[in-house]
Amino acid sequence: MLASNIQKIFSTWSKANPNPTTELQYRTPFELLIAVILSAQATDISVNKATSKLYPVAHTPEAILALGEEGLIPYIKSIGLYKTKAKNILKTCALLLELHQGKVPESREALEALPGVGRKTANVVLNTAFGEPTIAVDTHIFRVAKRIGLSQGNTPLAVEKDLLEAVPNAYLKNAHHWLILHGRYTCVARKPHCLECIIRDWCEYTLKSTAQSISG
User: Is there a contact between 92 and 116 (Cβ–Cβ < 8 Å)?
Assistant: First the structure.
């Protein structure tokens, strides 16, 4: 994709939504970390429903550890893989207290050392909680990046690397949120809403579809 078109895409998103953020509800880096761990293979809506009940009761590593597994599970049992997630959350809370004075670390290495935290989760926390220019490639971002022409990568890591190279520096901090929101509400998997898309003039998927319809 032409650099000028990439610039136009992100400039358009920036004007339409200058301060994008996650749809997960949180107040502290720790609350965000727990929410992101819970969000694996789950919707933000379902996570927010669970944490809206959990956080008034326990919103620190100490408080969640005090709940224990039996106390934590009732709050998160509506979320997929809740048993595994409960174990990981409790282990993570213990490590945060043991190694980081109860605070969420700001380095990728330390984050990825926590149970239930992989590269994608670490990227979300680094970007959303600490303002780092990282991009957490989930299914939405993977689809959008390839569909509109920002990447040809076949793995999340390859797409992430392509995006970090392609996205203009001025937009890197917010690129993650624009991409995921675009994939969630406009560039959906089965029937993308191309006619409503604000970046359709520079999207390779739309341009190819238009060319095919004309030639057909």
Answer: yes
SS3 of 51-117: the string is HHHHCCCCCCHHHHHHHHHHHHHHHHCCCCCHHHHHHHHHHHHHHHHHHHCCCCCCCHHHHHCCCCC
pTM for the structure as a whole: 0.92
Q: Give residue-wise pLDDT tens across range 21-35.
A: 999 999 999 999 999
* Contacting residues for 103 by C-beta, under 8 A, at least 6 apart: 29, 30, 96
Active site residue 120: yes
Q: Is 44 a catalytic residue?
A: no
Binned at pLDDT 50, 70 and 90, residue 208 comes out as: confident
Residue 157 CA to residue 137 CA, distance in Å, equals: 8
> b/e for 84-107, b at 16 or more Cβ within 10 A?
ebbebbbebbebbeeeeeeebbee
Active-site residue identified among 44, 53, 91, 138: 138
Of 49, 85, 120, 191, the active-site residue reads 120
Q: Note whether 43 and 37 are within 8 A (CB).
A: no
Angle between helices 3-16 and 172-185 (to 10 degrees): 80
